[in-house]
Specification:
single chain; Rossmann fold; two-stranded antiparallel ribbon; binds adenosine-5'-triphosphate; binds magnesium ion
Length: about 300
């Protein structure tokens, strides 16, 4: 295996490799990925919903032809669920069978606390990954986990080793490439941030969004793609409760293609608003502004009052 420092020769090489997987990475993201791989540092991607954070980890795993090991974070997530668990059901079954064979207690304990009965959860799986390349470990939506879990994670990410008391310590031979994502529902701990390379992923500009549509919805008419991009950019300037991300752009583009729409009209926008906006108040807001004004890009008075 080549040393990890040579996986990507430059940020441009990262951009190319991502583009080959239909992910448009701007230079800042490409550089962060290169540095994360070279320095073996976790990368923390923050941004609004649907801007392509999770996809970075998926694409990276595909490019490196290595498994993607995903830990979806949520409130109440505990260390056991993230590390390992003993397969109690199988252990009990084994004990019943062993009782009939009159096995000694010591022999039985040794067997039921062996690898065979261990359920590797994402963190341990990533640490035990045999290579030849490191696995990509995606810690998705880390902001949803509790602060205690974050502290525990910090420990694991510091030394990439995990001790299972009954079995011993597992140390990563190929420490995973770690991608953390956060929607910033709360600020993360400074200590965790310090360990990571940080990148804020913004909504794409018009040029990038056009390219994303072209890649992800092949065959779409140029004129329709342009109209979609213009509308999305306009909609994001409105202070909706939840602004539409790239995920919504792609859903909308596919929906409009499916409906065989050639030209975007105010009626079509009104009819398909539910693909873009997911809160009733936001849909009402769109109606109040008027689909015609949105398509014309005339939403000046609807901008957020907090923007000065
Ligand atoms: N730069 C991009 N190039 C290509 N596709 C993109 C890009 N950004 C986002 N997408 C697409 O947009 C969709 C949403 O991306 P993803 O799920 O990664 O967003 P996210 O930021 O993780 O959202 P959430 O916060 O809701 O989890 C995916 O289908 C992804 O492929
Ligand atoms: Mg995500």
């Amino acid at each position: 295996m080549p040393p990890s420092t040579s996986i990507f020769v430059s940020a441009a090489a990262v951009q190319q490799a991502f583009a080959a997987e239909n992910y448009i990475a701007d230079r800042a993201l490409a550089l962060s990925v290169k540095l994360a791989v070279d320095l073996q540092k976790p990368i923390l991607l923050e941004g609004e919903a649907g801007v392509g954070k999770t996809e970075v980890a998926k694409v990276l795993a595909t490019i490196l032809d290595t498994p993607l090991i995903r830990l979806q974070c949520y409130e109440g997530l505990d260390a056991n669920t993230a590390l390992y668990e003993w397969n109690y059901a199988r252990q009990i079954l084994h004990i019943r069978i062993a009782e009939q064979d009159h096995q000694s207690r010591a022999a039985l304990e040794k067997t039921i606390f062996s690898d065979e009965f261990l359920l590797n959860r994402p963190l341990l799986s990533a640490i035990r990954h045999p290579g030849p390349r490191p696995a990509v470990l995606l810690l998705d939506e880390i902001d949803r986990a509790d602060e205690e879990f974050e502290a525990f994670l910090l420990e694991v990410l510091s030394d990439f080793q995990i001790t299972v008391p009954e079995l011993g310590t597992f140390k990563a031979q190929h420490p995973p490439l770690v991608v953390l994502t956060s929607n910033r529902t709360r600020e993360l701990n400074d200590a965790l941030k310090r360990r990571c390379l940080y990148l804020w992923i913004d909504y794409p500009d018009a040029e990038k969004e056009r390219e994303i549509i072209r890649r992800r919805v092949p065959g779409i008419e140029e004129q329709l793609a342009n109209a979609i991009v213009k509308t999305m950019q306009t909609l994001r300037s409105v202070d909706f409760y939840k602004r539409p991300g790239v995920a919504e752009t792609l859903d909308w583009a596919r929906a409009l293609c499916g409906l065989e729409v050639d030209v975007l009209t105010p009626e079509t926008l009104a009819d398909t608003a539910g693909v873009l906006l997911k809160y009733r108040d936001d849909i009402e807001r769109l109606k109040a502004i008027g689909p015609t004004q949105v398509l014309a890009g005339e939403v000046g008075s609807a901008r957020s009052s907090t923007i000065v």
